[in-house]
Every structure is written in structure tokens, then in C-alpha cells.
Amino acid sequence: MEAKNDMITIYVMGKKYEVPADLTIMKAMEYAGHQFRRGAGCRGGFCGACATLYRKKGSYKLEGALACQKIVEDGMYIAQIPFNPAEKMTYDIDEIKPDVNTILEYYPEISRCLACNTCTKACPQDIMVMDYVQSALRGDITKTAELSFDCISCGLCAVRCPAEIVPYNIGQLARRLYAKYIDGPSRHVLDRVEEVEKGVYDEEIENLMKASKEELTKLYNSREIDIS
Amino acid sequence: MTRYTYYPGCTLKTTARNFELSTIASVEKMGIELVEPDRWNCCGTVHALATDDVMHQLAPIRNMIRVEELLQSGKVDNKQMVTLCAMCYNTLKRANQVFNSDSDRKKKIHDIMYREEIKYSGNVEILHLLEILKEYGWDNIKKYVKKPLQGLKVAPYYGCLLLRPRGIGIDNTDNPSILEDLIKALGAEAVDFSHKQKCCGSYHTVQMKEVVADLSYNILKQAEDAGANMVVTACPLCEYNLGPRQVQIKKQYPNFSSIPVVYFSQLMALAFGLDEKATVFEDNKPDPVPILIELGLIEE
Questions:
Q1: Bridging pattern class, strands B32-35 and B2-7
Q2: CATH number of the A7-80 domain
Q3: H or E element at residue A31
Q4: Please, which residues bridge with residue A24 across strands?
Q5: Which residues does chain B have within 8 Å of residue A120's beta carbon, measured at their own beta carbons?
Q6: Could you read off the pLDDT of A189-219 as tens digits, one per residue?
Q7: CA nearest A112 in B: which residue?
Q8: Do A114 and B44 touch (CB under 8 A)?
Q9: CATH number for region A100-182
Q10: Can you tell me whether residue B154 is helix, strand or coil?
Q11: Which sequence spans correspond to the domains of chain A?
Q12: Which residues, in sequence order, are CB contacts of A161 under 8 Å at separation 6+?
């Protein structure tokens, strides 16, 4: 693919920079001289550390994205939101119940939801955030866990919510409740732990520990890869 | 089998599951299928933040988009949406009226909802299940009654939201009869009483339970004095204020004994001969089962 050499103008925290047109927001900011101490993590769209708000040229809409995923556009105004201030409640998963009252006890502001859908519009993961907030509000823990599954807690939904709800904390609580009380223990993990404790893999591990670098390299390169 | 989009509302999924389960099971007997949309949200009754009118309408109107989605995909037969909760019914129907009354407001709502694939037309019709029952015909409903509710003297409690404001209400605001007609069709006696349209105190129950207990006491006392041995309602908030709130009523009025309060659909399920999975009386407080056993309507 032929690289684009076009330079475009972007505004980082209001300051004007000329940057190559084919960079992500994160790379464009680094090109412009910014160094990330916060607001950068995996650089692969999985960790949620680089939440960024922007407005495109000529648009009134405030939009959100992960800086490591979004390509810059000419005239774009950019500000990173590396952290959303919100109290994360602590609870003992063994002491709480998978129902609507648990949600309301820890995050009572959820009842302020207007169903305006601003959170969904802000989500860089295309999660139906408003729908999972609504399902949490009616005690449907399973649906909340399923709908919020791809959440990476970047915080953009919470930044944009006019009711000041912190959806990602609610989604996390619901997923924990779902895992603990609804989905039940993961049988294959328990089986494997039991096998490990019985010493089924002891010999194999011993052999690996004793192997030379050459032997390990050979084993690694000839390993079976299951891509099913 | 006629299929309607059915809008449950939050309460039907939490504290009023007896209302929902009994209704679904009962109308199934009548050949009516209630189809719940995969996506739905709060009817919009709680607007803790909003001061502008447009924001008030977003939640209810979004639910009407869900109806048009279901209609488009062929999963329902018409553009009507059925509700059980009187609060949801009232909120949704009023929002629809507001939406259709002003093209400027309509455009604003469309602009805010730019992510929705369907632009709401304004054509969805909001119905309360009681309206469907009336259209179905009381004589037709009688055909499904296997166990006429003889001896049951039922006070029909309408409260506010089924009847007011005029133009939204499902029946004559001053002289309603829809609940009475249903009660009679089920073989019970409908007891006329003075307080059937009085307010139960609504959300004051959160902060001022004494006020609600006063109001509810007056309603229940009038029903009892008129000879009722049971009260029916179509609203989960009324059910709460008249039912579980009797604990508070007894504190304020020690001479008050108790009277069971049930959803109209639970009486349908009972009369249709359905089992306890459909009647779900275990969720009602005070317990309606003893009086039903006494009258021979439930076996011990």
C-alpha cells in the first residue's frame, strides 16, 4: 500500500500541529512531541487507557474514541481523557445477591437514567451501553453481563452521561454477579486445577525445566497449534 | 393467535412478576401472544434530571421505535403496544400525544436520536391490556372461565393513571366500568365503592409512608365497608401502597384488620383454572389464599 504523504492540521489541547494524515491520534500526538506517561497502554485497542474526546471540523458533535485506534482527520480538535474520576465501590462478592437491589445499593444513581443513549453514542467498543444500564435497572443481571462483556472501562460513557452514572462500574458489578451466581463455577478450570494438584503434569514440567535452550527451541517450533 | 408487542416496564420484571406471569398465561388461553421486544427501556416516568420537555420524551419514544422494528421484522401483527402497568401506560401514551402534537419537537427528537435506524413515525398506538380485553368481548372471555369466582366480592380500584387525564384514560373518567365488567365476566361480584378513583399516594410512599398509609386506609376501609373481601388493581405502585403498606396502616389504625389486594390478571388466571405458576399469589401481601380457600376457589 502506498503511504500517504499528505500533512494535515490537528489541534491537541487547542494547540495547532501539522501531522501526517495516516497516523492514529496517539501516533500523531507523539509525532507532535507529546510523551505519554498516562493515556497509553496496550496500543492495540484492548486496554481502554487512551480514551480521547474529539470534534471533527465543521461538526458540533462531541465524539469519543481510543487514541490508538482512531485515525486523525484534518481540522480535528483532540483532548485525551486518561482517567474518569469515579468512586469504585468495594463489596464482598460472597455477601451480595444477584438482584436489582444490589445494583441500587452500590450505584443508586443508575435510577437517574433518562434513556437518552448518549453513553452508547460515546462508546468506542460499539457496546449498547444504555441498554445494559436499563437491563441492570430492571435486575436482569445476565443481560447486563452479556451486553457489557466487551467493555474495557475507558470511561467515555461516564464522561458523557448527563445523569452522572458510571456505566462501566455497573457492568463490572453485573459481570461479577453473573459469574458468581448465575453462570456458576467454570468446570473445566476446576478439573484442570484438580489434575494439577494430583500431579498429572509434574513429569512434563520436570522435563521442561531440565531441557536445554536448543531442546526448548525445537519443542517450541514443533508445537501443535490448535486454531479451531 | 394474535400477537401484540408487549411493553412490560421495570416493575413487572422485579416486584410485580405475579402481575406479568398471570397475565401472559391468561391471555395465552385467549389466543393472545404478548411479544416482548428484545430491547426496551424505562417508560420514562422518572426524569430526575430533565427540565426541558424534549428530554422527557426520549425514553418513551424510544420504546415506540422498538414497536416499529418488531413490525418491520414481521414479529408482531400490528402497531399497537400493550402495557400492564398503569404508570407505563400513562407515560407512554402521553409522550406519544406530545410527540405528535408539535412538528418542531418531533424534529428535535429525531435529531437527538440520529443513531436509531428507524425515525419514529408517531403512529404506534399505546394500549392498556384492559382495553384489549374489552375489545375481545366480556362474553368471549366468559368462555374461558372454568372456575367462576363465586362468593368473591371484588372492589375495583382504578387509582389515577388508568383514567386521567381525560383523553388518555382507558374509560369514562368519572364513571368507569371496565374493571367491573371483567370482574363480572370472571363470575365474581363487583363491589361499587366511593374511593375507586382516589389517589393511593403514589411515590410519596418513598418519603412519606404515613401519608400513603392514611390515603390507602381510606380506600381499603371504604372497600371493606361496601362489602368487598378483595381489591383488584392494575398498577404495581397502587398494589404496593394498598398491599404491603397495610403493615404501616395497622400501626396508624390498630382496628384495621386486612384485605388482600391482587392484580386483575391474577383473578383471570384463577378463573381460567390455571395453576399457582400462573396465579403467583405467593407474591401478594397480605396473602389472598386464605379467603380463596374459605370460598372454595382454591383447594387446601
A1: parallel
A2: 3.10.20.740
A3: helix A25-31
A4: A71
A5: 115
A6: 999 999 999 999 999 999 999 999 999 999 9
A7: B48
A8: yes
A9: 1.10.1060.10
A10: strand
A11: 7-80, 100-182, 194-219
A12: A118, A119, A167
Nearest to B298 by CA among A61, B279, B53: B279
pTM over 0.80: no
Q: Do A139 and B112 touch (CB under 8 A)?
A: no
Other C-beta atoms lying within 10 Å of the C-beta of residue B99: 22
Give the nearest partner residue to A114 out of B10, B47, B113, using CB atoms.
Answer: B47
Contact assignment for B59 to A114 by CB distance below 8 Å: yes
Given B13, B14, B58, which is nearest A115 (Cβ)? B58
**Cell numbers linked to A71:** 485515525
> Which distant-in-sequence residues (6+ apart) come within 8 Å of A105 by Cβ?
none
Say if CB A94 and CB B29 are below 8 A apart. no
Grid coordinates standing for A25?
491520534
Do the Cβ atoms of A127 and A144 come closer than 8 Å?
no
User: To the nearest whole percent, how much of chain B has pLDDT over 70?
Assistant: 98
Domains, chain B, in order of start with CATH, read: 2-130 (1.20.1050.140), 146-294 (3.40.50.11810)
Residue with cell 520436570: A206
Strand order in the sheet with B125-128: B32-35, B2-7, B80-83, B125-128
The 10s digit of each residue's pLDDT in A121-176 is 999 999 999 999 999 999 999 999 999 999 999 999 999 999 999 999 999 999 99
Q: Which helix (H) or strand (E) holds B96?
A: helix B86-100
